[in-house]
Amino acid sequence: MPSPILAPRGTYDLLPPASTLRAGLEARMRDVATSFGYGEIRTPIFEATELFERGVGEGTDIVEKEMYTFVDKGERRMTLRPEFTAPVVRAALEHKLFAAGPQRFFYLGPIFRYERPQKGRYRQPHQVGVECYGYSEPEAEVEVIALAWQLVRSHKIADARLQLNSIGDAACRDRYREALLSFLRPLAPTLSEDSQRRLERNPLRVLDSKDPRDGEAVKNAPRMLEHLCDPCREHFGAVRALLDALAIPYDVNPQIVRGLDYYTRTVFEIVSNSLGAQSTVCGGGRYDNLVASLGGPSVPAVGFAMGIERFEMILSAAGAAPEAMRRGVQAIALGVQARARLLPIALRLRERGTAVFMDFADRKIPAQFKLAERNAARAGLILGSDELEKGELVVRDLVERSEVRVAIDDIEGITTALQRMGV
RNA sequence: GUGAUUGUAGCUCAGCUGGUUAGAGCGCCUGACUGUGACUCAGGAGGUCGCCGGUUCGAACCCGGUCAGUCACCCCA
User: Fold this and answer.
1) How far is the CA of A324 from the C1' of B46 (A)?
2) What percent of chain A has pLDDT over 90?
3) Which pLDDT band, with edges at 50, 70 and 90, does A198 fall under?
4) Is the pLDDT of residue A323 over 60?
5) Can you tell me the distance from the alpha carbon of A111 to that of A399, in angstroms, rounded to the nearest whole number?
6) Cα–Cα dist A312/A321, whole Å
């Protein structure tokens, strides 16, 4: 016997009713982004591999070992998108949108990374995120952060915290890099193997190492925030002042570094301790050089990406997951003839937007009531032989356990009775 | 990629130091109840014990491999 085919490792099937909850969450996310003036952008699920090599950075783990890359029949190197920012920039450049001034986009959908699955980490995770182009002003960061914060706040998530840092621009980061290197080099033998390996290539990564051996060295290491050039320091101060004015709480956390090459100046994360080792639910910041590095004009940019699965995990940990509401109607017919009469009524109700469930298996009344329970129907529409004779049907409130009788063809009367029951 | 741990019915799990036809609860189906959801009672369906191989007279149990889940490292949303 052939072995059964399973969903690929690190992926999952979203089934009802979880899929209904997901759809509701996505709808609320769209609403929030829309209320900030962002428009939805949908880009292809695969792109030229080179886009990510240039956009995300050749030295990053994502590009080095996590991409789903293939060669198509036209010998083109293609990659399933591992993130959204590079594709969005590509689309904006392709359609010359930057000629029209500032642009605001949000996106929602799956990304693909070949990673070892664990809690809050999948091979096809889903992200919602925004991109704001054309503003070098600190208000841009604050708008994007406020949007992310609104997403979190609108769901009453208690233990989410905003972490903020500045990693400077090309000029002051290079100077800091040198300062950090000359501090860490003498200590190299005391660092973890990973950090020793990373030291020359990306010394900033040593700062957020979890290895206790690195903690000691990092403790006295020079701080980026103290090495910011004047414009960067001023900019960071302005971001903080605006956040304070909006009463958005945050911690300055010098260890926030972000893994992608394109970030400049402000970086931020929203973290929660209900996520295990994957504590970040949202990560973002400013990336003023990305558009130019992909061959476009010099356009400053700010954005974030939020993990939808992780967001759901926080929601359920907070007990904020919405309960499935009782909704719709169970159409209960006894026998083929009654079914034939009830079917068009069900259709009429559905045309009016009422959910109607119906069973065709000739089950008895009690069995059909059980189905109504399983469907979490709010009301029942019962048509048996008695009713058929009298030309009536029973509209039953499944919560109050009360019922009224209405003429079979009186669709208005049925609708009114259902409305009274809150269907 | 590294390490740890788990895999028995649709779900949650039991199954002693390897020993006849593998169990429970919930769920599902049928009936008691010529037409009202719960409860009760009586029946019933459903498992090649993740898969492959090995050891053994004999494997759900021991060994190896493999697939998948989970957790951590790493990385990140």
Assistant:
1) 29
2) 62
3) confident
4) no
5) 42
6) 8
User: Of A371, A309, A423, A337, nearest to A14 (Cα)?
Assistant: A309
Domains present along chain A, CATH in parentheses: 18-157+252-317 (3.30.930.10), 329-420 (3.40.50.800)
Residues A21 and A318: their CA atoms lie apart, in Å, by 15
The contacts of residue A405 (CB under 8 Å, 6+ apart) are A387, A392, A393, A394, A395
Q: Find the radius of gyration of the CA atoms of chain A.
A: 28
Nucleotide nearest to A373 in CA–C1' terms: B37
The overall average pLDDT reported for chain A is 90
Distance A332 CA to B40 C1' (A): 25
- Report the distance from CA of residue A376 to the C1' of nucleotide B44 in Å, as an integer: 27
- Predicted TM-score (pTM) of the model is 0.90
Supply A327's token pair. 């909704």
Chain B bases near protein CB atoms (7 A cut-off): 1-3, 28-31, 33-38, 48, 51, 67-77
**One-letter amino acid for residue A406 of the chain:** V
Which residues, 6 or more positions from A20, have their beta carbon under 8 angstroms from its beta carbon? A324
Cis peptide before A17 (omega within 30 of 0): yes
Q: Phi then psi for A334, rounded to 5 degrees?
A: -110, 105
Closest residue (CA) to C1' of nucleotide B68 is A9
Pairwise CA distance, residues A70 & A68, whole Å: 7
